[in-house]
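2024-03-11 09:14:02 INFO worker-7 job=invfold-0412 stage=load source=structure_tokens
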């Protein structure tokens, strides 16, 4: 009986403190994280690679769409230059799924649709951000592309 009670209490604690319920109001930090991601996508739409890179931590690593390689910050800059030079997204739609924050580290899960002149994509992504000073910086990125419109059924 005691292990069951402990398990129930642990589940209640985790649900009460660690999980964002759909429709639940965000904390100020969750709003900051989401605003950081939205601002980042707005920079994508301008095609300004250096502005995009300012939002990345020096230790940034990313796994982009169907690419097989993991990119560091230098490789990410090259990837973005190639993408934006060919077809920066003109429209973008992000839909948050969940944002977890522990201390100064956040994981943000969302779905996306990018629409450009030559290329459009749908997918889902997770970003890890670290807060340094008063600024959230992207330190890790991973996304997967979907053949069908999100939510990637």
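2024-03-11 09:14:09 INFO worker-7 stage=emit residues=153
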């Amino acid at each position: 009986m005691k292990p069951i009670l402990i398990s129930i209490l642990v589940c209640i604690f985790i649900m009460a403190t660690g999980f964002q319920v759909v429709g639940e109001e965000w904390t100020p930090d969750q709003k900051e994280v989401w605003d950081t991601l939205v601002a980042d996508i707005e920079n994508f739409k301008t095609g300004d690679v250096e502005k995009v890179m300012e939002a990345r931590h020096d230790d940034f690593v990313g796994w982009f769409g169907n690419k097989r390689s993991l990119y560091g910050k230098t490789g990410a800059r090259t990837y973005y230059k190639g993408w934006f030079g060919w077809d920066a997204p003109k429209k973008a739609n992000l839909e948050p799924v969940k944002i977890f924050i522990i201390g100064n580290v956040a994981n943000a899960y969302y779905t996306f649709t990018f629409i450009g002149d030559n290329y459009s994509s749908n997918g889902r992504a997770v970003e890890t951000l670290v807060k340094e000073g008063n600024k959230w910086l992207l330190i890790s990125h991973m996304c997967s592309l979907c053949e069908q419109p999100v939510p990637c059924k």
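2024-03-11 09:14:09 INFO worker-7 stage=report msg="The beta strands are 56-63, 71-72, 91-102, 105-115, 120-132, 135-146."
2024-03-11 09:14:10 INFO worker-7 job finished
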